């Protein structure tokens, strides 16, 4: 899909979701400014934030969180943005979501259980190196 081919007003709901999947931060922010919902979701309830997190798009995740995206939505598959990021091995995104207050106990399985199952427990441990990477990439968005 070529997001620049349509104006933000003309995007279909599926095209808006694709912007999140592909990490098209500027195009998605323009679509939101044009009136598309921050909580747009697939038929399974997978939100823009979840899609951005699952695909490791840290900049987009930060932009959506800054706009007020709900951190703790659980889709019909039992996943949250946090549990999906952990399952996909996106530790930077997971770390950012935790720093923003995402609840690791939500989901089926929970994000914490997903981390155990996937060998990603590191995301819950202090990690100055990873935190420095996030601060460098996301600046003020990472606390």
TrEMBL record:
InterPro entries per the UniProt record, alphabetical: Ankyrin_rpt, Ankyrin_rpt-contain_sf
SMART domains, per database record: ANK
Ranges for the ANK repeats: 44-76
Swiss-Prot/TrEMBL keywords: ANK repeat
Pfam families documented for this protein: Ank_2
UniProt-recorded name of the protein: Ankyrin repeat domain-containing protein
